[in-house]
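Notes from the 1:1 (GR / supervisor)

We went over the backlog. Supervisor wanted to see one worked example end to end before approving the batch request, so GR pasted a single chain during the call. The sequence is below; no edits were made to it. Supervisor asked that the structure be written out right there so they could see what the output format looks like.
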Amino acid sequence: MMPLTEIDRLKRTVTPAWESPVADQVAAAWGYPAGTAKWWRSSASHVFVLPDPRGKRYLRFVPDAYRDAGAVVPVSVLMHRLAAGGAAVVSPVPTETGGLTATVQTALGTMHAMVVEAAAGQEIDAEDLTDDLAHEWGQALALVHDGAAGIDDGLPDAFAELAEIPDRFAEDPAFVKAAARLADRLARLPRDRSRFGVVHGDFELDNLAWDAGRATAFDFDEAALSWYAADVAYALRDPTGPDGEPDPARRHLVHAFVAGYRGVRALDDADLANLRLFAGAHAACSAVRIARALEWSGTDEPEWRAELRADLTGMAGAQRDLAVSVAERN
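Structure output shown during the call:
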């Protein structure tokens, strides 16, 4: 997630018609006239809808200070190659000059951008998930893992945030100790090609669109090099309880997901045994990312930001507690 101050900077440029001169400057790289892009949301990147006679598209851009071109370009290449290979993944739209991304100077500084096609279908909520859909969900993730094998140039290693915890949370020795224990456990895991490679990084239900029972993935902002089982663990956060174990009431969905995944590629019992470890490591990293987003040196902020800050602070606390709980039991 971008810092709340960065989100606020962009939000202040958005008009009552959901337009922004900053988005207009970025969208021009794809030939869109001013006023076309409509603000949708800002989180890991700023996202604007692009109504288009060829089909709805999404403009996504991030400030260079938050994520440079070296982080954005590999994601566009990964998505392009996956889509070209037939994977159910949204495809990047080339700029007017043929690139998959654009670097644009705007009133708010340098932005790195991508335009992607809209995914066919609708999102579904966790409450609407059935065994059949969970099976398809697991199968879809396995197909992404298979299709992405080897498309790893420039992608970061996952769990890098663990190294920040000793300094960032020096006043919380229990969390620092937990992070060290989790990092040590991860360091001992095998990294053979059957278990470690390119992962989506955020294959939750809110990053999938469903059409006729088939899932299409979008939002590859968190793509990285990691254990495939770690990607499974992150995807399954919805049917997972606050202790990192499957929610008993939703355990059948986890089983269906795993069965779907295993119908495409291997996921052995050793991988499954590490799902809780990965859940704890993800939680620790999430606490770091939230802390980054909350950094602010001012004395006043708008109401919406104060409310979001309170929500995120509570979320960070829950993630910290999960990480400590997992570390104590692993």
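Supervisor's comment: The chain is about 40% helix and 15% strand.
Batch request approved.
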